[in-house]
Amino acid sequence: MAILLGAIALAARRKAAAAVPPFLIYIAFDVLLIAAMFLYWARRITGPLYDFNGYFYYAIHFMILFMLAAIALDGLRIRANDAPSVVVACALPLLMFGSPARFNRVGINAAAVSDPWFENAAEDSGRIAVSLPRQDFRIRIRTPDGLEGLLRRTGVASRLHWLGQPVCFDDRWIFLLEDRDRCEHVEGLLDLDLKPTPASHKAWSAELQPFPAAKLPFTINPAGRNSLNLDFYGPENPPDGPIWSGKRSMMRFLLAPDWSSTPEVRIEIRGTAVKARAVHVLLNGTRVGSILGDGPVTSDFVASPDQFRAGHENELTFEVDGAGPVDHDFRTLGFELGSVQFQPGEVASATR
What we know:
Number of domains: 3
CATH superfamily of the largest domain: Galactose-binding domain-like
Strand content: 25-35%
Helix content: 25-40%
Order of helices and strands: HHHHHEEHEHEEEEEEEEEEEEEEE
């Protein structure tokens, strides 16, 4: 069909005296621009996202068909009557039903046929969403990693959104939504933990509870179970593995009102430092020390309980001098963080 329309359009343009309409020139420019942007983006994505985003390129084919049809109709001088235009405009989308069989399938499955496994995930997501009482605060949705967890995370989030319930995702999953849907503050935040039921993987359990308020001793780590890790890279594999900070990255956590009864708090930070990149550690905006090294490090700092905000959100910030690429990784990397422990008592040695 494209070849036929192209031949008619070419023949019609040779006979036409009028110039090509500006709108069609604009559409042609759009096609070239979108194709260039798609190729640029395709060089920066991998895995399932590459295949998933590839299907959007079929919209370019659709635009080209309509552009050729418009040129052909103009050249044949039958645009004075709206009937041919309406027929062509309605007929072009129907061409999808005449596409070769290999374009109607994804792997071994028919693209237009629902998969029972996906249908069950959608039904279960809807069941979970409607079973939750309406909350005034945002709900952070947490699931195990993997495809099933991804389906439940996005499915429940979508249904809660349409039910008027504010939701948010951790920083590492925000690519599934929009930047405005990132969990940024812990006060008032609710955690919705979704897990497969041992007796049946078809139905998942849902537990809604307040964001955990910590008491000494406690640990915050890359998994983000009791913290919001903002502007870090990862973790990737395993999910509890270390995370890379950028030039400035933050961990926000909630303290219980009676979180400490000790005159001093020891902060132990484990990770991997990069040579000549000083890591400045700030607690609620006040510097508590710096980390220097080249390789694995364990640094201890001492802070007064008065530097913390009992019963409220607290923030531990990592600011790295000279953050940049590491080896063949061209991201802006600073410090590879393993864990942060808060313990009562004095520190034998501190790195300042």
